[in-house]
Specification:
252 residues; mainly alpha; three-stranded antiparallel beta sheet; 68% helix
Length: 252
């Protein structure tokens, strides 16, 4: 199989400009270029593009993606690992859906509210491998120990804080607030303080590069649909990112 650049745009939804950028930085060169300059992508290039898109959805930066792909790991091995993660995410979302449905039914008086069922699927340990990849095993261990060491009441309070913060961000974005305005900047300060309360992260580590950490997370909120959903979608995530960036710039 070999596709021209417009066919790749059609089947993937990414732009020709993005494909050209990937070629320019050595991330995804076309398999061949015709005399007219038209680019073509063969099976190997398309598989590489699939891996790039999977990693982008996980919030991995382009430089990191190139380093991962250039390790030479067989595609089927890497894709099998991705598939395992996607299936785990599918199962977790199914559990969360069931938990939320049960809560709605309880609020409607159709069943008893059970805390254990309410929080089924809200297991933070699932992100341990991702945390290790981004910030190291020590950070993952500290975060895991902190989370598992909390009482259920404290965990619930922490999750409620996160939900309240996400809802406040989403509301501000829907209302068309200025990311540089006072309301958004107050949320940005609250967000960074919330991050600083998570042991193992650079924001909570003395001398840690909080600015780079928060910028990386803010970009990930936009790039990763799992996070963007917390803020009402990609537009809301962009609002959060812009507000956090401005707060960091103003505090520098």
């Amino acid at each position: 199989m070999e596709l021209g650049i417009q066919d790749v745009v059609r089947v993937t939804g990414i732009t020709s400009r993005t494909l050209r950028h990937y070629a320019a930085i050595g991330l995804l060169p076309p398999s061949r270029t015709a005399g007219s300059g038209y680019r073509f992508y063969d099976d190997d290039a398309l598989v590489r593009l699939q891996r790039i898109l999977l990693l982008r959805e996980a919030g991995v930066g382009l430089a990191e993606i190139r380093a991962v792909l250039d390790r030479g790991e067989p595609d089927e091995v890497a894709l099998t690992r991705h598939l395992g993660g996607l299936r785990a995410e599918q199962q977790r979302l199914a559990r969360r859906i069931a938990a939320v449905e049960a809560t709605i039914e309880a609020r409607q008086g159709r069943r008893e509210l059970v805390a254990e069922k309410m929080f089924d699927g809200f297991d933070h340990a699932q992100y341990r491998e991702e945390v290790e990849e981004r910030w190291g095993a020590e950070a993952a261990t500290r975060a895991h120990d902190w989370w598992t060491g909390m009482s259920r009441q404290d965990r619930t309070a922490r999750e409620e804080d996160a939900a309240d913060l996400a809802a406040a961000w989403a509301d501000a974005a829907r209302e068309g607030a200025d990311p540089r305005g006072a309301a958004a900047q107050e949320l940005a300060a609250r967000h960074i303080a919330w991050l600083a309360g998570m042991p193992g992260t650079p924001a909570a580590t003395p001398g840690g590069d909080t600015t780079a950490y928060v910028r990386g997370l803010a970009d990930m909120y936009v790039a990763d649909p799992r996070f963007a959903r917390n803020y009402g979608g990609e537009a809301g995530a962009r609002f959060v990112r812009d507000a956090l960036f401005h707060h960091l710039d103003a505090s520098a």
